């Protein structure tokens, strides 16, 4: 099996790196921009992880103009706002044998990828990982639990999905090929959308929000609203996910603590680009199509879009 990883940042670098480390597939290569290629050619791919061990190794880094057909899987790990450019970059790699596995947040990218490559080419997938790419090019893995879920969008169990599951099973990553990948993607959006909407709108971490009057109840109400949106679109959140993972995560936010934040807030506070439309805008539109109250999602989306307008106009202190 030959696997091309689009990107070698926090997500692509970690998942692709662990797959390369396992040495169970014929080839793993990374499709990157010139600056990242220079780092990888000079230093190799470097992962630092106190929980799963460090890894440093030379890797194959390709530029867009170097990509040719012949890949079994393209692992797509870009941000949503880079999707159009990513589609153009991976197009030369995709032929009749290729499966495209996106690990983007949200769901709207599926339609874009199916329009570009055909429904038979695109898998559904999601990643659960806390990692960041340092300025020096090191992938820093921040928390022990890391998981990967994927499957055919039509619910079938296919040889390509089972082969990919078997390859990742040799890594420290918890991997699962599932028949209801759309439902799992809605579940992640339920959780992530609440975390992003809350921390971006309030410009605070979960502990700081919980410290505010009725903050904890507000967080839970936002999470339950997302679950109602998912259910209205035919994908109810499994009780085991809601009761054992999502609600405990929000309920254990310690008032005033340095609690969790969404990566969207970290990007926003750094003055970077954010996935406002792909996550917050998608949930707002889904709430309206389902006829559900939308005031929480509208406020979060407007906040994010106002930030984008201010960023584009360079009206930040020190800009």
Automatic annotation (TrEMBL):
<keyword id="KW-0560">Oxidoreductase</keyword>
<dbReference type="InterPro" id="IPR013332">
    <property type="entry name" value="KPR_N"/>
</dbReference>
<feature type="domain" description="Ketopantoate reductase C-terminal">
    <location>
        <begin position="180"/>
        <end position="307"/>
    </location>
</feature>
<dbReference type="InterPro" id="IPR036291">
    <property type="entry name" value="NAD(P)-bd_dom_sf"/>
</dbReference>
<keyword id="KW-0566">Pantothenate biosynthesis</keyword>
<dbReference type="InterPro" id="IPR013752">
    <property type="entry name" value="KPA_reductase"/>
</dbReference>
<dbReference type="InterPro" id="IPR051402">
    <property type="entry name" value="KPR-Related"/>
</dbReference>
<keyword id="KW-0521">NADP</keyword>
<comment type="pathway">
    <text>Cofactor biosynthesis; (R)-pantothenate biosynthesis; (R)-pantoate from 3-methyl-2-oxobutanoate: step 2/2.</text>
</comment>
<dbReference type="Pfam" id="PF08546">
    <property type="entry name" value="ApbA_C"/>
</dbReference>
<dbReference type="InterPro" id="IPR008927">
    <property type="entry name" value="6-PGluconate_DH-like_C_sf"/>
</dbReference>
<protein>
    <recommendedName>
        <fullName>2-dehydropantoate 2-reductase</fullName>
        <ecNumber>1.1.1.169</ecNumber>
    </recommendedName>
</protein>
<dbReference type="InterPro" id="IPR003710">
    <property type="entry name" value="ApbA"/>
</dbReference>
<comment type="function">
    <text>Catalyzes the NADPH-dependent reduction of ketopantoate into pantoic acid.</text>
</comment>
<comment type="similarity">
    <text>Belongs to the ketopantoate reductase family.</text>
</comment>
<feature type="domain" description="Ketopantoate reductase N-terminal">
    <location>
        <begin position="3"/>
        <end position="154"/>
    </location>
</feature>
<dbReference type="Pfam" id="PF02558">
    <property type="entry name" value="ApbA"/>
</dbReference>
<dbReference type="InterPro" id="IPR013328">
    <property type="entry name" value="6PGD_dom2"/>
</dbReference>
């Amino acid at each position: 099996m030959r696997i091309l990883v689009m990107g070698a940042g926090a997500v692509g670098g970690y998942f692709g790196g662990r797959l390369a480390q396992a040495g169970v597939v014929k080839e793993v290569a990374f499709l990157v921009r010139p600056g990242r290629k220079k780092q990888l050619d000079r230093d190799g791919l470097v992962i630092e992880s106190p929980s799963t061990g460090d890894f440093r190794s030379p890797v194959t880094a390709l530029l867009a103009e170097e990509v040719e057909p012949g890949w079994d899987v393209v692992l797509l790990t870009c941000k949503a706002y880079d999707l159009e450019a990513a589609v153009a970059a991976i197009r030369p790699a995709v032929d009749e044998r290729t499966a495209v596995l996106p690990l983007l947040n949200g769901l709207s990218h599926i339609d874009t990828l199916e329009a570009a490559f055909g429904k038979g080419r695109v898998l559904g997938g999601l990643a659960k990982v806390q990692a960041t790419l340092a300025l020096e090019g090191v992938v820093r893995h921040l928390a022990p639990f890391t998981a990967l879920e994927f499957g055919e969008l039509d619910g079938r169990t296919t040889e390509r999905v089972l082969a990919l599951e078997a390859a990742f099973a040799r890594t420290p990553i918890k991997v699962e090929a599932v028949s209801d990948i759309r439902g799992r993607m809605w579940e992640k959006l339920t959780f992530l959308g609440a975390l992003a909407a809350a921390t971006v709108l309030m410009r605070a971490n979960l502990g700081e929000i919980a410290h505010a009057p009725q903050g904890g109840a507000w967080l839970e109400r936002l999470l339950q609203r997302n679950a109602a949106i998912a259910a209205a679109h035919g994908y109810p959140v499994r009780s085991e996910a809601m009761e054992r993972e999502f609600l405990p995560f929000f309920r254990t936010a310690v008032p005033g603590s340095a609690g969790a934040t969404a990566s969207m807030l970290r990007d926003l506070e750094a003055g970077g680009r954010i996935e406002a439309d792909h996550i917050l805008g998608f949930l707002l539109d889904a709430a309206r199509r389902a006829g559900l109250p939308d005031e929480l999602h509208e406020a979060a989306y407007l906040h994010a879009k106002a930030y984008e307008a201010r960023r584009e106009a360079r009206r930040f202190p020190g800009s």
